[in-house]
Give the backbone structure.
Amino acid sequence: MMKKYLIEREIPGVGGFTAEQLKGAAATSNEALAKIPGVQWQESYVTGDKTFCIYLAENEDAIREHSRLSGFPANKGAKVQVSYTRSLFVASQDFVKKNPVATRKMVEVLLRGQKYMTDPKNRDEVITLFCEQSKQDKTLAQAIWNDYTFDPVFDDAYVKDMDQMTAYLLASGRIKSAKSVLDYTYTAPLAAIEPGLVKVPGKFKA
């Protein structure tokens, strides 16, 4: 029976790899997978100094063998740090400028939703709803849920996380140029509702 594994690997500077370097790493991994029956790669996520990969495998030994053949570490037992960007509300500049009241109301709803999600008594209900809407595996969601950061604070950690994401998008060719994260960060609605959540104000003005 195949089981799903979430593997965290510490690879210094991986978030700044070029597209060619990332392709090379993927090719090395695929070569190792071809030699091991009963292991299937599902998807991968890259952050500043780590990758998070999801595999289907018959047992942990198969995962360890893949790590040995590929030369990539599998840092079992390490905490999974999930990007702060998952707590953001994203809207176009045109929408924000044309709909200031709606924008503020959406931020209010987002805050209420995050508070509801972080309440332990709502954990099972929230995971069930999340999996139903996203078609994600519930067992996997339950296993990593406590490692997600539902935090709407705009602070230095937010800036660092977004800078790392920008570096990855540049390296992988998904964007052609970078802008300062604060240039497109709009914190005014949040500051009007809960000023204490804005440690580093955004520069975007509606």
About this structure: The beta strands are 3-10, 39-46, 50-57.
